[in-house]
Amino acid sequence: MLNNGLLKPVTSHPGDTYLNKMASYCLTVTRLRLALGTGARRFHVSTAFSAKAKVAMSRFEPGSSINYEKMHENINIVRRRLNRPLTLSEKIVYGHLDDPAGQEIDRGRTYLRLRPDRVAMQDATAQMAMLQFISSGLPKVAVPSTIHCDHLIEAQIGGAQDLQRAKEVNQEVYNFLATAAAKYGVGFWKPGSGIIHQIILENYAYPGVMLIGTDSHTPNGGGLGAICIGVGGADAVDVMAGIPWELKCPKVIGVRLTGTLSGWTSPKDVILKVAGILTVKGGTGAIVEYHGPGVDSISCTGMATICNMGAEIGATTSVFPYNHRMKTYLEKTGRGEISSVADQFKDDLVPDEGCEYDQVIEINLSELKPHINGPFTPDLAHPVSEIGAIAKKSGWPLEVKVGLIGSCTNSSYEDMGRAASLAKQALDKGLKCKAQFTVTPGSEQIRATIERDGYAKILSDVGGIVLANACGPCIGQWDRKDVKKGEKNTIVTSFNRNFTARNDANPATHAFVTSPEIVTALALAGTLNFNPETDYLTAPNGEKFKLEPPSGDELPSRDFDPGQDTYQHPPAESSSVNVDVNPSSNRLQLLEPFDKWHGKDLEDMRVLIKVKGKCTTDHISAAGPWLKFRGHLDNISNNLLIGAVNIENDAVNKVKNQLTGEYGGVPDVARHYKANGVNWVVVGDENYGEGSSREHAALEPRHLGGRAIIVKSFARIHETNLKKQGLLPLTFADPQDYDKIRPDDKISITGLKSFAPGKTLTAVIKHSDGSQQSISLNHTFNDTQIEWFKAGSALNRMKELQ
């Protein structure tokens, strides 16, 4: 309880009457209010008297309790120090500080040392994360952690068949993850459970929790008032090892929502609009915090959709304030106890009145129109009413070949219900989809519930194929047969990301992201040139009809059907569990430590590739068929930068080997340089490494002999991942210096002996004509991260400190 000298403990005696107790209570309440003042946000009185009953973080971890008291204490310490109102983002982040009394706090500048509550890993990134954890030598994870098998299931035929095939093809990997989870105390969600972010929302996210996940769309949990941040596997290892986790103190972008969602406008349109405003890098280094009276018109799962796609603007994460929609969702998913205790601490789960944001965007939901973004980038925003004309003018294919709904972004019960309401209208007129149509349930619970309630049948009857509860086409796990590679075509999805070739490995596919409702309408029409708000469909009998706006229940009127039990609890005793990695495996490989820095400047490094334009982690380390090698560093390194465009020849995966004079694939040339003892650098453009959190995009260049990545600017997660693996992520002090570097240059990086935070480094560029130039390079290393570089990697440094 707060005590500033005005508060005294309330004592009770056996003879007290009820009236005496009430008088004491009321007196203390009065003292509380006097102590806190009328202008400050008041401490929630019921909290001061709440029973300190322990509430489990999840039904799977009865021994791990929610600790709102500690968060509240930390918030008060920081509020007194800063002497100002706090945003919600600040409350949750600062509420998890390792040292709230001593931590330097300056938004956008200082690094925070944090204690997240839990870790979540999807199977593609969990392989490398667990391999790194095994290398640490620690016996058990220090915080509740889970592995989710969702990335390795390829969409081919349909849910059941694809799942069975995945279990057979990936048996070695699934066995490794299951035994490693059991050995080290990690919960394991088997293949078929569902997509990591939907499982987290249903079971693990709650208001005020801080969770880190090895997937860039981890911010999905912000829809339940949580701070959920996507990271690389090395960051996850830090938290699982019980080491404070570092994050640059985020700025806070406020998005004030007014009005009410209605008609064809959906939560997805909010983030599609925000992406158009902020672009793919406008949220870098910031948390996006939604607030305002419009928030209450959005369902909890709708808020999760908005937070999920916040990854596409580079945001650290996104979050909504705790409200009755979250409370209802918690109760409907069997977590009423959590909502009750969250109610007691509600003042810590909403922003303070008068808090200040670094930037504010205002959106009137009543005026917001349905949007569709793309192609080739998720921030190219268009109103649906205009996309047909824009596509004609731009030469984009109008015919919609495939409509795909679901994914971690839009696969809730509400999403499926609204899509089914449109499909039902079409079926009533005898109409089916003109385009191919696929449906991806977000979890086994969603699949079972929409099957029970008839939505799955409606979506199938209109022409849909229900895929496995997995990521599938959203991440490129799609064995697409209807078009040939290089054939220009259009697809529309309710996914979150639409970079070139992401969904089907075809660079000519024009992918657009929108809401499930608009996807369904466009799949029915078979063309982009269709506005469901004004245009008519034609039934088989020639009748013209217009679709009524979609409708659907936010949550099932009956309880959710959990479906099959797909969770593996870690055993209490795991000393007898063996984790085997076959030395001859082409899927798994134990890690060898990277070499330490030799203590000198890095001299005469070759330019492996000078990248032209956008270079996402998909360009650096492709997904799709390469996912099978995520546990084998040497094999997956054969995809290093094969999607990046070489500025020398505008070609992909074709660079000149400066030692032989011949052209070859990027990974082949990198291997040749490494074999000959030649270090190399990559030169890149703006927002290098945007997209997925995959740390393989950092591990691969390190493994193949890279030393530095020099670019105009970085995406947050990728920059951190590079530091973790002992590489130097550096930015041009003058972005125009990018033009000074030629593909056949040699580059030396000097000043490393006095490497220090805030101190620039120098690149000496030696041209083949004998001339040379020097340019300044910036970095964001702090003292701890410089120790990672010197040790060769963060993992090496961890071992040094043991």
UniProtKB/TrEMBL annotation:
Please share the entry's free-text remark on the cofactor: Binds 1 [4Fe-4S] cluster per subunit.
Signal sequence range = none
Q: Give the residue ranges for region: Disordered.
A: 539-582
- Tell me yes or no: is Acetylation among this UniProt entry's keywords: no
> What's its catalytic activity?
citrate = D-threo-isocitrate
Q: Which UniProt keywords apply?
A: 4Fe-4S, Iron, Iron-sulfur, Lyase, Metal-binding, Mitochondrion, Transit peptide, Tricarboxylic acid cycle
A GO CC term attached to the entry: cytosol
**Cross-referenced InterPro entries, in alphabetical order?**
Acnase/IPM_dHydase_lsu_aba_1/3 (IPR015931), Acoase/IPM_deHydtase_lsu_aba (IPR001030), Aconitase/3IPM_dehydase_swvl (IPR015928), Aconitase/IPM_isomerase (IPR050926), Aconitase_4Fe-4S_BS (IPR018136), Aconitase_4Fe-4S_dom (IPR036008), Aconitase_dom2 (IPR015932), Aconitase_mito-like (IPR006248)
Name its cellular compartments.
Answer: Mitochondrion
Cite the EC number. 4.2.1.3
| Cofactor dependence | [4Fe-4S] cluster
List the molecular function annotations (GO) for this entry: 4 iron, 4 sulfur cluster binding; aconitate hydratase activity; metal ion binding
Start and end residues of each Aconitase/3-isopropylmalate dehydratase large subunit alpha/beta/alpha domain: 90-526
**Coiled coil feature spans:** none
Q: For this entry, list what GO says about its biological process.
A: tricarboxylic acid cycle
The UniProt record lists the Aconitase A/isopropylmalate dehydratase small subunit swivel domain at 605-734
Annotated pathway: Carbohydrate metabolism; tricarboxylic acid cycle; isocitrate from oxaloacetate: step 2/2
Q: Which PANTHER family match?
A: ACONITATE HYDRATASE B, ACONITATE HYDRATASE, MITOCHONDRIAL
Q: NCBIfam families per the record?
A: aconitase_mito, PRK07229.1
What's this protein's function?
Catalyzes the isomerization of citrate to isocitrate via cis-aconitate.
The record's family statement is: Belongs to the aconitase/IPM isomerase family.
Q: What is this protein called?
A: Aconitate hydratase, mitochondrial
